[in-house]
Amino acid sequence: MLFDGKFAAGGESFDNRITQLFGIKYPIIQAGMIWASGWRLASAVSNAGGLGIIGAGSMYPEVLKEHVQKCKQATDKPFAVNLPLLYPDIDKHIAIILEEKVPIVFTSAGNPKTWTSTLKEHGITVVHVVSSAKFAKKSEEAGVDAVVTEGYEAGGHNGREETTTMCLIPAVREAIKIPLIAAGGIATGRSMLAAMALGAEAVQLGSRFVCTPEASSHDAFKQSVIEAAEGDTIVTLKRLTPVRLIKNHFYDQVKEAEEKCASMQELMDLLGRARAKKGMFEGDLSEGELEIGQVSSIINEIKPAADVVAEVWQEFQSAVRHPFTY
């Protein structure tokens, strides 16, 4: 077999270190995306056998608490919270996570040493998101239970290393011993098999789950994703904070500013506040920041999250049995 794991009878579930760690049926994880990953999406993915994640990056502490409580009511399956460590109210988010006894936390955008021990002392499983083998190793040393390796194809904020998923997975696999989850450019069962053949033990999908009715992002944004063609996304603002987004009028303004060698402050002023909310949550396709991955070019319809999980899983099983049949 190309990967470390085994199917249950009839292929109805899968057993490996990730499914055991999270207590889930399939090694399919939904990314914790800002303005898209509320309790409805997280609970739908978890109920379908994957791991749903609430994206705390776009939530005030009281909003996060509400989403966690509603997710508990909507599913009796494991779910997680994605927590950007650079969030200004991080201590309040941590307090809510501990109070609500969230079972799994995915941390990102910061030093995993800061909060990993605190979370683990309360029995919480901790996963950290990285974009390089170097930081995967540092995360392992910090005591996390697993890492997500996110390649440059991914939507949203990207690593400065610009390492693509197919290069990143084997490099990280060689660097660490803990479980590895692959992300970036993965949307199908076949890409899931490719990631696992390279050393991943699960995959994390973001863009694919944006295009679901349960995602809290605006319908206009979802439509722009399924209409996106090859080359319609680009990583920009590399001097400030690299982000992959759909090209639109906002991007044109950023490009013009960068060509004129705008200062960091001028770029920050252009980005302003709530630019991502304007685009992804409010549906302003001209002036908003439309964060999405390269794989959007092969996503052509909006379908329920449970159908996405089932489709990816079925295609993965088919690819395992017949890898050279298309």
Number of helices: 14
Which structural class fits the helix and strand makeup? alpha/beta
The assigned CATH architecture of the largest domain is Alpha-Beta Barrel
Compute the CA-based radius of gyration.
19 Å
Q: Give the overall pLDDT as a whole number.
A: 92
Q: In one word, what is the shape?
A: globular
Largest sheet report: 8 strands, parallel
**What's the helical proportion of residues?**
25-40%
The CATH class of the largest domain, by name, is Alpha Beta
Distance between the termini: 20 Å
Order of helices and strands: EEHEHEHEHEHEHEEHEHEHHEEHHHH
CATH fold field value of the largest domain: TIM Barrel
Task: Provide a descriptive summary of the structure in words.
This protein has 14 helices and 13 strands. β4, α3 and β5 form a beta-alpha-beta unit. 40% of the residues lie in helices and 16% in strands. The strands form three sheets. An eight-stranded parallel β-sheet has the order 3-11-10-8-7-6-5-4. It has a three-stranded antiparallel β-sheet with strand order 9-13-12, with helices on one face. With 326 residues, the chain is an alpha/beta fold. It has two domains: 6-216 and 300-321, TIM Barrel (Alpha-Beta Barrel), CATH 3.20.20.70; 219-295, no CATH class.
